[in-house]
Each structure stands twice: as C-alpha cells, then as structure tokens.
Input
Amino acid sequence: MTVKQTVIEKRVRRKPLHQQGPQSISGEKDPNFHYRIVNDTGSRIHAFQQAGYELVTDDDIVVGESRVSSAGELGSAKRIISNDGTTSFLMRIKKEYYDEDQKVKQDRIDELERSMKDEKSQDFYGKVKTFTK
Output
C-alpha cells in the first residue's frame, strides 16, 4: 500500500454547509408555514410573536445536530445554542402572512426604484434616463 492510498482511505466524508449546522431544518415541515430561526436577544421573540410567528414544538422536525437542546419535554419549543452562547428558537408563520409581508417589502422597494427612474424632476434641471440595449 502506498502513502497516497493511505491518505485517501483516511479522508473524512464532508457534509456541505447547507446540510449541517444549527441552521439546517429537516423533517416533515408543514408546507402551509414559513420557518425561521430567531435569536432570543432583547424582545425579538416577543416581536416575532406579535407579527404572527409561533414557536415550533413539532417533534417530527429536527433542527441542526448536537447543538439543539434535547433535554426538553415533548412538545417544547425547538431551541438552538450557538457557539457564542446565543439561544435561538425555531419559529414559523402562516405562509399567507409571510407572503403578505414579503409583498409589502417588495412594494416599498419597487416604489423606491420607480422614484429613482422618474423623469420628472422638481426644482432641478435635467432628467434621468435609462438606456436599454
């Protein structure tokens, strides 16, 4: 056996980043909800609850790997502890509310972009034009 073969045999299988860590969510997620991990700092959890989010207690959903608190009762919220000690929780919101919130954000972006392209300038000389090829 050569040195090259020995190195190849000892190679550790890797997991792509999107398939590991505390941010990965696996299991039977309800397609009627949008899931998000929220840091428990200040009043963020309360603010998210006021916006329509709820803590996920579904025992079929697994979050991350060893960092997830497993010492909870059945039906307790999914809790994640990060490397810096920050506690986070898995939360979800109804898909219709999430889509509504995203539309409001996109409408604001569209409005700002339209204002940048407006050819009518008030109290200024000249105009802004977009060129297309």
User: Anything to note?
Assistant: Confidence is low (pLDDT under 50) at residues 66-71.
